[in-house]
Amino acid sequence: MSFTEFRAPANHLIDTVLPVRPAVVDRGSADRMKPGMVQDVIASGNAKAMVLSQRQALILDNKLWLGDAQALAASLQGVAGGVTAIYLGRTLAASSVPERTPIVLFVPEEQPIPGTAGLPADGTWTGFREVAARLDATETALFVEASAISNWHATHTHCPQCGTPTGIEAGGWVRRCPRDNSEHYPRTDPAIIVTVVGADGRVLLGGGGPADAKNYSTLAGFVEPGESLEQAVAREILEEVGVKVTACQYLGSQSWPFPASLMLGFTASTDDVDARPDGVEVTRARWFSREEVQAAVLSGEITVPTRLSIARSLIEHWYGGVIEDLQQ
Q1: Strand 174-176 vs strand 183-184: parallel, antiparallel, or unpaired?
Q2: CA distance readout (Å), 230 to 6, 96, 195
Q3: What pLDDT sits at residue 27?
Q4: Of 1-5, 32-36, 84-88, the least confident
Q5: Cα–Cα nearest to 146, from 103, 95, 83
Q6: Separation CA 258–CA 260 (nearest Å)
Q7: pTM score > 0.85 for this model?
Q8: Which of 5, 175, 189, 193 fits as disulfide partner to 184, beta carbons 3.0 to 4.6 Å?
Q9: What is the mean pLDDT of residues 151-174?
Q10: Which residues are CB-contacts of 320 (< 8 A; sequence separation ≥ 6)?
Q11: Burial of 35 (0-12, 13-18, 19+ CB in 10 A)
Q12: How far apart are the C-alpha atoms of 260 and 44, rounded to whole Å?
């Protein structure tokens, strides 16, 4: 069906199916264009700073540690390899940090030992997956934003046109080539993630790795150039499990910058009853009724993604409620 064949009431909108969390940080895209703005923010004495190195943040008492930016900048000056400073934004009313607090990210090239360089001695370097369940919404948002922008800096140090090392501008959100003056911006790779539902209401879940592994989740894949999201849903499901999608609907999204993805959640319908894993990305695929998926989780026969992920939200949207986890 083409766009011109579809007709709906004028300006007809529906609510996003998956919940939308309010922003906790104003990233200040206009403010950060001022030359030297990061240094000005740090020198103001009002800014807080988080520290992230080698994809790990400093965690203290199961919380994202935020230090005084001015003091921390001075303490980190002697760190081997140097430190990149990036402006993350100013907190909003929905944040657990006092409103209008400037937040700066420091990224040391080498990971300082806690207790040195102004870092608390009882802090620990921890990856997002290991601590995510204990972070609040503000800490999660800052960790995700910091991971996304620092990953980009780590992998885009040179101009893609001429190979010249690039310089950092705009509060850490632009890299400029000094040779050809080209500007380069952070990238995000769109990926679709899908619950496939059969005509009988069962959901198709799958997984990669060993064929006898217990973890089952939604199916997913990257959007290719020139492709619509809906086309990507149909192609990926056909490629991965040999199932033809007859219709799909967007439900919501989740940033997953590990390294740089934006997960776009869909539910899709099919008339097919057989699934044939491709043996590469998907090594096992199985249809579940609602009763079967809950029983399999409680018995330990399978595991499903944690509640932090959009995959779990998609599965529970199909399920129609909360899936109880096996208590260890």
Answers
A1: antiparallel
A2: 15, 37, 13
A3: 95
A4: 1-5
A5: 103
A6: 5
A7: yes
A8: 175
A9: 96
A10: 290
A11: exposed
A12: 32
Other CB atoms within 10 A of residue 90 CB: 20
Reduced to 3 states (helix: H, G, I; strand: E, B; else coil), residue 206 is strand
Q: Which string of DSSP letters, residue by residue, matches 283-310?
A: SEEEEE-HHHHHHHHHHTS-B---TTSH
Among candidates 177, 246, 174, 229, which has minimal Cα distance to 29?
174
Alpha helices, DSSP H only, in 34-107? 37-43, 69-75
Q: What is the helix, strand, coil percentage profile of the chain, to 5? A: 25, 30, 45
Q: Which residue has the tokens 């998956």?
A: 18
- pLDDT, residue 3, reads 37
Tens digits of residue pLDDT in 36-88: 999 999 999 999 999 999 999 999 999 999 999 999 999 999 888 899 999 99
Phi, psi of 59 (to 5 degrees): -115, 135
Q: How does pLDDT run across 8-31, given as a tens digit for each residue?
A: 455 555 555 777 778 999 999 999
Q: Using alpha carbons, select from 73, 11, 76 the residue that is nearest to residue 42.
A: 73
Q: How far apart are CA 83 and CA 163, in angstroms?
A: 22
Q: What is the pLDDT of residue 272?
A: 96
pLDDT tens-digit series, residues 292-325: 999 999 999 999 999 889 999 999 999 999 999 9
* DSSP H helices in the chain: 37-43, 69-75, 128-131, 137-155, 229-241, 290-299, 310-319
Query: Tokens standing for 133?
Result: 């369940």
Asked if the peptide bond before residue 114 counts as cis, ω within 30 degrees of 0, the response is: no
101 CB-contact burial (10 Å; exposed 0-12 / middle 13-18 / buried 19+):
middle
Q: Which residue has the higher pLDDT, 239 or 129?
A: 239
